[in-house]
Amino acid sequence: MTELSGKVAIITGGTSGIGLATAEAFSARGVKLVLHGRRQDILEAHAARLPDCAVMAGDITDPDTPKALFDLAQERFGRADIAFSNAGLIHGGPVDDIDTEKLAEMIRVNVEAAFRFAYTAVKHFKAQGSGFLMNTGSVLGTKVRPGAGGYAGTKYAVEALSEALRLELAGTGVRVAVVEPGLVRTDLHRDHSVRPEVVQGVDQPLTPEDVARAVVFACEQPRHVLIPRIMVLPAGQAV
Ligand SMILES: NC(=O)c1ccc[n+]([C@@H]2O[C@H](COP(=O)([O-])OP(=O)(O)OC[C@H]3O[C@@H](n4cnc5c(N)ncnc54)[C@H](OP(=O)(O)O)[C@@H]3O)[C@@H](O)[C@H]2O)c1
Q1: How many CA atoms lie within 13 A of 213 on its CB side?
Q2: Ligand 1 pocket member 181 (CB < 6 A)
Q3: pTM to 2 decimal places
Q4: Inside any domain, residue 129
Q5: 188-207 burial, b for 16+ CB within 10 Å, e for fewer?
Q6: Is residue 151 among the annotated active site residues?
Q7: Domain with 177 in it: what CATH number?
Q8: Could you tell me the CA-to-CA distances from 48 to 66, 149, 160, 190 in Å, in that order?
Q9: Is the dihedral of CA 96, 147, 102, 110 positive or negative?
Q10: Ligand 1 pocket residue status of 15, Cβ below 6 Å
């Protein structure tokens, strides 16, 4: 039994990468899961494998999604304790050369959907008098590099969201934090022609499990403790 055993976690971006690794780490600690992503077949495979796992497929930019996820948690498990707002995507390129339609899509997923999800999560947790919202930011939400202005901009917004909520919710029993990974080997960079670790000179990127350990560590702290930001970098990333 851990601090987390019996709790209920909603995870967006739960089909793969960091979201899936965190779902697995939570599950190993007795947490019940509500997983979201677009790939229904993959969600169903996770639900068949992980105990107490409900799933919902859809686009995170649908404004009805956050409430539907909290309703599902209520229906299946009677409550929600943790919300991991993790769905995201990356499009790179210099500001005057980036595909602006892809940029707009990234802003909808990484920023608009994160704010909408937080809006619903915080209302739910405030009414309950407890709850933990963890947002996935990035080291690129704390510093910019050429060619990553669009993505960094979305993750700076996630930092602002997380910090504003931390201040607004102090003393309510609702905790908000942000995890800031460096380079992680996941499907996020699937469209890149050259592997990002080669471009960035990182000998060994993080695994999704490395980030999941940090998320679990933050979430399992006693209620009077908050780790508001947790940056996890590959030791070899000179970012
Ligand atoms: N990998 C890195 O180096 C790195 C570093 C820092 C931060 N991050 C952040 O970590 C988070 C997770 O990314 P990852 O690296 O684990 O990559 P990933 O394996 O590609 O995971 C992205 C997740 O987001 C979901 N998603 C994307 N667009 C969606 C949409 N429109 N509607 C619903 N779900 C959507 C995907 O689900 P479906 O495809 O099933 O829809 C998937 O589960 C992202 O916020 C990313 O920005 C990653």
Answers
A1: 6
A2: yes
A3: 0.98
A4: yes
A5: bbeeeeeebbeebebeebbb
A6: yes
A7: 3.40.50.720
A8: 23, 40, 37, 26
A9: negative
A10: yes
What does residue 2 show for φ and ψ, rounded to 5 degrees?
-125, 175
Residue 179 lies in a domain: yes
125 and 131 in contact (C-beta within 8 Å)?
yes
User: 232 is written with which tokens?
Assistant: 């996890």
Length of the chain: 239
Residue 175: closest CA among 212, 215, 138, 122 = 122
Residue 238 covered by a domain? no
215-224 tens-digit pLDDT: 999 999 999 9
Find, among 149, 210, 216, 218, the residue nearest to 182 by Cα: 210
Task: From 184, 185, 190, 215, give the residue whose CB has the most ligand 1 atoms within 8 Å, as the site to mutate.
Answer: 184
Domain for residue 239, yes or no? Answer: no
pLDDT tens by residue, 153-174? 999 999 999 999 999 999 999 9
Number of structural domains (the chain) is 1
CB hemisphere CA count around 159 (13 angstroms): 17
Q: What is the domain extent for residue 110?
A: 8-232
